Amino acid sequence: MWMTNVVALCLLALVASAEDKKLSSHATTLADKSANLAFSLYNKMAKEKGTENILISPVVVASSLGMVALGGKSSTASQVKKVLSADNMKDEHLHAGLSELLSGVRTMLHPTVSDAKTRNTTWKINNRLYGPSSVSFANDFVKNSKKHYNYDHSKINIRDKRSAVNSINEWAAKSTDGKLAEVTKDVPNPDGAMIVNAMYFKPHWFETFNGDMVDKRAFLVTRSLTIGVPMMHRTGLYDFHEDKENRVFVLNMPLGQKQASLILIMPYYLEPLERLEKLLTRKQVDTWISKLENRAVAISLPKIAMEVSHNLQKHLAELGLTEAVDKAKADLSNISGKKDLYLSNVFHASAMEMDVIGNPFDTSIYSSGKLSNPQLFYVDHPFIFLLKDNKSNSILYIGRVVRPKGDVLRDEL
Ligand SMILES: *[C@@H]1O[C@H](CO)[C@@H](O)[C@H](O)[C@H]1NC(C)=O
Ligand SMILES: *[C@@H]1O[C@H](CO)[C@@H](O)[C@H](O)[C@H]1NC(C)=O
Ligand SMILES: *[C@@H]1O[C@H](CO)[C@@H](O)[C@H](O)[C@H]1NC(C)=O
């Protein structure tokens, strides 16, 4: 009898974990806040001269901020909450909510054995806090930052910059199966605490591209610079919107079993993305999404791998995180038990691979007539994209592709 009960309980637990668990209200609130953060951060970064491709994960940025709040005290900690617009949330709710959000998207995209249906999209998220060798991390902090934010901890010798750079890059490469070879070439201010996020993302399309149809095409970076990229093609039914007033196409490409989707936002023709970026608010994106309509679309998308690395420290300061990054003011004493640390770098780096792979689909669609007269969506010039989680609505990635890797076909400068 007793045994039967135990077995029944286990079964129940399995069923419960396989089902869609609802997010707690704190996690829902934080998903919403992190989406706002996504747009503010993107807009700051887009304005920076010399930045080409952008790739940031707002959920991961939010959870890194949570980690800073965990290590911070008094106004240093409360300022972090302000940047997250979570001023009024209790600490325990903040940490539990962000933790739930992060583990939710992790298991959704990078699931366990029990969740075989979604196993194909890869999203590796590795987080590490580096500190100078003089610092001793407090046990509680190590335990809690691991538990909530999946952070591990390491120390570097601040007098040997070269070895600091190497150890960061080696760790990132190792933890992304070699996909992210380099996070940084330099470690400015190695005397502080440094956040390193090293990620690798590879979407698995809801419907696969045809691998035999990949060919080399031109990608127009600017009027004078053209790059050769492998281009993949497919025609299918997609949610699509043409904003005639703003001369923008918007396309929704679902991933996996539609747990998430990649939303591509592209001007009609080649142009600098500034105009589009001025339009890029959360409200505008929601409006576009609300206007999507299912129709036949012929998609040509570069089959690219990109590695993008940002140091977000300055941009987070622009968004109000001024104390944690200030050596004179920072109080991060919950990290080490002493007021001896400030946040000196926030390295946020991702490798992303867009490939043909996806789920097989019912090919009888070709003879159904549903795909006749498709809308062309030909991605041969810079575009913006968002990866959205279908359940929490959080933004898993936001970025832009301005200059893919490839041979220069034409350069008139
Ligand atoms: C920081 O440390 C103090 C005790 O020194 C503790 O009361 C507080 O809960 C800690 N904060 C966090 C976020 O762990
Ligand atoms: C994962 O991808 C492989 C190869 O594309 C495919 O054979 C397999 O069925 C996929 N699994 C799921 C659960 O979609
Ligand atoms: C979200 O998931 C539901 C249920 O699977 C699906 O019907 C819907 O199309 C998905 N939304 C997107 C944007 O993929």
TrEMBL record:
GO molecular function, one term: serine-type endopeptidase inhibitor activity
GO BP terms, alphabetized: collagen fibril organization
Protein family per UniProt: Belongs to the serpin family.
UniProt keyword Glycoprotein present: yes
Taxonomy, superkingdom: Eukaryota
Key words of the record: Chaperone, Endoplasmic reticulum, Glycoprotein, Signal
Species in which this protein is naturally found: Gymnodraco acuticeps (Antarctic dragonfish)
GO cellular component, one term: extracellular space
One of the Pfam families matching this protein, by short name: Serpin
Described function: Binds specifically to collagen. Could be involved as a chaperone in the biosynthetic pathway of collagen.
The protein, known as: Serpin H1
